[in-house]
Each structure stands twice: as structure tokens, then as C-alpha cells.
Amino acid sequence: WLELDPANAAQAQPSKMRMLQPANGQSIDCLAFSADGRWLATGGQSGQLSIWNCQQGNLPPQLVDTIELQTWIERLAWHPTLPQLAIGYGPQVKIWNALTASEITTWRFNKSSVFDLAWHPSGAYLAIAGYKGVEIWGTTDDRRFVISHTLTVEPASIHINWSPDGRYLAAANLDRRLTIMDWHNPDDPWILQGCPGKIHQLNWIEHTEKPCLAVATGKAVVLWELDADNWTGQLLEGHQGVVEAIAACPDRPMLMSAATDGNACLWSSQGEISQIITKPSQGRASLTNALGGFTALAWHPHSTYLAIGNQIGEIELWMSSA
């Protein structure tokens, strides 16, 4: 299985990979583990939401539920403390209870299609990105959702992510700019420029001394760090294809990026590549040339393994011994 060794900067291939879902010709666009590591949710072009149980001893995740939404599923977000999954598809937001396999609520997002979803770490708020910015919805005692704050962005916010402590909300915008809101002062956000391409994902790196935001943009990753009241960016280059997905390691300040070149890079918080991981072609054309590379990435909360999806619908688990 895959050994993620920070001391080993050589290119590596996993000796074994567990195929969770074989190719079906339709892309996997979102992968998400629940905060307790029990559930894995996957969705994409097929319009089928799949939920896997990850607590079966040494067995791989077991498929326990599929929900046909009949439209492209692009965004998933697990509640930080409850077995509840927020799903964005078209203009709809659905909250699903994985434990009871039942719908809690569904409502229409008024701005546009749902471009991204992010729960506040407290679980009290759900941020929804779309046309003209971000709406932050709060929950009421009777489990209804009501708007508590709006972050206006021109022309649209396409990706959002809360910092681990819940203080900062980062929004990636269609014009390649970043808007970062301080929840303690929500009406005076920072506006950052300097991303070399379209932004594909945001992720905060944990266990750092200062707030550190990773941004997948074009063929690079940009690390933004807050020092006093200023954000400074560091460009990380190492991919030959577009970086589609990034995931921060849950227990140490490292980041994994996955791209259309069929490679995944393990980065330190200082911006150094610790390892480059490639998938063996197994007697067929490479991912880079034939399959279009990787599209989604999720790290298990206990750092047990990575789940990774690609453009033809494969989902694989890469195990970590680090």
C-alpha cells in the first residue's frame, strides 16, 4: 500500500491500490469523508450520490446507500459533528441524514446554481457560494435554515472554505481573485490577487503557526499566509497538468494535490515536495494521456488513506503507513 514518507522525495508508485468503484465513463467530481471518519460520500456526472460505511474493521468501505438525484452532483459537505451531508446540485441544497438514510430538508438557492458548500466548524452555519457571492445560513431550533449574513462578490464565488478555527471564510471568485472574510469583522474582507489560473479548490492547512490557505489554481498551488494584517502568497509549481483537487493532511502541516497529469504531490507547509505519487498504467494507456487525470481528492480524518477520483468514474483508496 502507499507509504507517504515525508523524508522520501523520490517519485513513488503504490504497490497496491484498492479499487472502490470501477470506471463508468462519468467523472467523479466530489469526495468527502465525515468528520468522524465513518462515512465517505461520492458524487459526480452520473447524478448518483453514493454513501460508504468506512467502519468495518480491516475491510474497505462498504457501499450502504445510493441516491439518484438525476443531475450533476458537484459539491458535498459533511456536518462537523452530526452524520448529516449537505449536497449541492443545480440550484438545490439537500441535507441528508446518513445514519437514517433519510432527507432532512431541501431548499432552492436563490442566487443561482450552487457552486460550493462549507459548514462552519461549529456546525451552526452553512455557507453557500454562487452568483454574486456567498450566503451564510444559520440553523434554527426547529431545524430550519435562515440567512444570517451575505458576502457580496462580483461576478461569482465558485469555491469556499472555513479555516479550522472557524474565524476565516475564504471564497475563490470567478475572476481569479480571493475574498477572505474575518468572521469577527465580516463587513471588511481582504481581496487578494495573484492566482495564475482558474481556481479549482481551496483548503486550509492545519497545524501551522499562522493561518495558511492553499489554493489550486491553473497548474500550480498558491499558499497564502496571514502575518499581522497582511496576506503573502507563495507559488508552488510541480504539476504538468491542471491541479483539480487539494486536501490538507488532518494530523500534520502537509498538503496533497492531484492534477490532470495523473500525478499527486505531497507538499510541506514550506512549499517543498516530499513525494510525487503516480498510478501504474497496469498495461493500459496512462491516466495523463487517456483518462484525463484526477478530478477529486479526500483525506480520511485519521490519515488512514486517501480517496481519489478521476474523469472516467474510478474511485481508488491509497493507503498510508505514515
Number of helices: 1
Mean pLDDT: 87
Alpha-carbon distance between the two ends:
11 Å
How many runs of DSSP E, i.e. beta strands? 27
Kindly estimate the percentage of residues that lie in beta strands according to DSSP.
over 45%
Task: Bin the helical content.
Answer: under 10%
Kindly provide the radius of gyration, computed on alpha-carbon positions and rounded to a whole number of angstroms: 18 Å
Overall geometry: globular
Widest sheet, order of strands: 11-12-13-14-15-16
H/E element sequence: EEEEEEEEEEEEEEEEEEEEEEEEHEEE
Major β-sheet annotation? 6 strands, antiparallel
Counting helices, strands and paired strands, the structural category is mainly beta
Uncertain spans, ≥5 residues at pLDDT below 50?
A: 1-15, 282-290
Q: What is the subunit organization of this protein?
A: single chain
Describe this structure in words.
The protein has one helix spanning 287-291, and strands spanning 11-12, 18-21, 28-33, 39-44, 48-53, 62-68, 75-78, 84-89, 92-97, 102-108, 116-119, 125-139, 145-162, 168-173, 178-182, 185-192, 199-204, 212-217, 220-227, 230-237, 243-248, 254-259, 263-268, 273-278, 294-299, 305-310, 315-319. It is globular. The chain is built from one helix and 27 strands. A hairpin with a 3-residue loop joins strand 22 (254-259) and strand 23 (263-268). The chain has 322 residues and is mainly β. The strands form six sheets. Strands 11-12-13-14-15-16 form a six-stranded antiparallel beta sheet, with no helix packed on it.
